[in-house]
Structure formats: C-alpha cells, structure tokens
Amino acid sequence: MAQYAVQPTSTPTTVPAKLPIGAIAPWAVFFGILMLVLLYFIGAEQGATSLVSGANVHEWVHDGRHLLGFPCH
Predict the structure, then answer these.
(1) pLDDT tens digits for 36-50?
(2) pLDDT of 1-17, one tens digit each?
(3) Cβ count within 10 A of residue 57
(4) Which of 43, 44, 45, 48 is nearest to 67 (CA)?
(5) Where do the structural domains in the chain lie, given as residue ranges?
(6) CA–CA separation, 57 vs 46, rounded Å?
(7) pTM for the whole thing?
(8) In this structure, are residues 43 and 68 in contact, taking their beta carbons and an 8 Å threshold?
(9) Cα–Cα separations (whole angstroms), residue 56 to 38, 42, 45, 51
(10) Taking CA 61 as the corner, what is the angle to CA 57 and CA 64, rounded to the nearest 5 degrees?
(11) Residue-wise over 6-44: b if at least 16 C-beta within 10 A, else e?
(12) pLDDT at position 32 over 90
C-alpha cells in the first residue's frame, strides 16, 4: 500500500482579530431603535398609549401580539 501526504496548495487567509467599535456602533444603534419601535407597535399600540388612531395597527399586528404573549382583548 502506498501512503500519500496532502500538501496545502494555498496560504490560509487571515481574519482580523477585532472589529473596530466605530464599524459596529451605528448598526447596533439602528437595530436597537428598530427593535424598540417594533416592540412598541406589537406590544403597546392600543388604548391609552396609542399614537395612531383607529384599530388598523392593532389588526395588522394582532397575531404577533398573541405569539409574543401580549394580551390584547
């Protein structure tokens, strides 16, 4: 039986050890605000805290409320 050794044909690529905080911070703020807005519309946009008149927002996010455990009626 013959034995074979596999030799690497290319050099491995290097991955930077750290990402600069300046590259991550704007995206973190954006997604943080987006999550707060979504949570507000799903969880609190009804009744006394309502910013939009009528029941349209309630009807659009009704199933999401129940899925996340928010009571709505």
Answers:
(1) 988 887 777 776 777
(2) 567 777 767 777 787 77
(3) 16
(4) 43
(5) 21-68
(6) 8
(7) 0.56
(8) yes
(9) 15, 12, 10, 12
(10) 160
(11) eeeeeeeeeeeeeeeeeeeeeeeeeeeeeeeeeeebbbe
(12) yes
- Joined together, the tokens standing for residue 26 give 């704007």
Residue type, 45: E
Quick one: three-class SS letters along 4-65?
CCCCCCCCCCCCCCCCCHHHHHHHHHHHHHHHHHHHHHHHCCCHHHCCCCCCHHHHHCHHHH
Contact 72, 66 (CB under 8 A): yes
Tokens 């927002």 locate to 57
Q: How far is CA 34 from the centre of its chain?
A: 8
| Percentage of residues of the chain with pLDDT beyond 90 | 16
